[in-house]
Amino acid sequence: MDFASYIRDIEDFPKPGVVFKDITPLLKDPQVFQKAGEALLGLTSNMKIDKVVGVDSRGFIFAPLLASRLGAGFVPVRKSGKLPFKTLSETYALEYGEGTLEMHNDAILKGEKVLVHDDVLATGGTASAVCKLVEKLGGEVVQCNFLIELTFLNGAEKLNGFPIRALLQY
């Protein structure tokens, strides 16, 4: 399926010079949304996965679906101050700023196999921070999954050799 035709470019968002890849046209079409979920699941190649980590906020769209289909638990990673229990945090850089992500400190058990999922791999700062959180808790990142990879931003270089899969590359 041509998922790229369901991705809309938004010029100068969230700041001048950035071309934002808007996935909402893909999400609003039920058949395309379902097929994208199936395609993302296919990227896991029948791996043994204990937890799927979804990144705030668009990573929450497909990560629970993937977790359910894989028979794995779902772990939300949120922006600072949004989780109610004790957390670990990691600061990261974006192409247009900086932020901090948090994960509950009991979300992942030592030795668990973890799939990290987000909508877009851009500069790699967000995904790298999530992988660091997983490793701090003793988890093993088996793959980082994305709907879109912006290859020209070289984000994969920040992921220290973790396997990366994406449905679309720009």
Automatic annotation (TrEMBL):
- E.C. number, please? 2.4.2.7
The alphabetized UniProt keywords are: Cytoplasm, Glycosyltransferase, Purine salvage, Transferase
Q: Name one GO molecular function term.
A: AMP binding
Q: Give start and end of each Phosphoribosyltransferase domain.
A: 26-148
Gene3D superfamilies in the cross-refs: 3.40.50.2020
Which reaction equation describes what this protein catalyses?
AMP + diphosphate = 5-phospho-alpha-D-ribose 1-diphosphate + adenine
Q: Main EC class of this protein?
A: transferase
Quote a single Gene Ontology cellular component term: cytoplasm
Return the InterPro entries for the record.
Answer: Ade_phspho_trans (IPR005764), PRTase-like (IPR029057), PRTase_dom (IPR000836), UPRTase/APRTase (IPR050054)
Biological pathway: Purine metabolism; AMP biosynthesis via salvage pathway; AMP from adenine: step 1/1
| Any one GO biological process | adenine salvage
Please give the function described in this protein's UniProt entry: Catalyzes a salvage reaction resulting in the formation of AMP, that is energically less costly than de novo synthesis.
* Family that this chain belongs to: Belongs to the purine/pyrimidine phosphoribosyltransferase family.
Record's PANTHER family? ADENINE PHOSPHORIBOSYLTRANSFERASE (PTHR32315)
HAMAP family in the record: Aden_phosphoribosyltr (MF_00004)
Q: What is this protein called?
A: Adenine phosphoribosyltransferase
Q: What gene does the UniProt entry assign to this protein?
A: apt
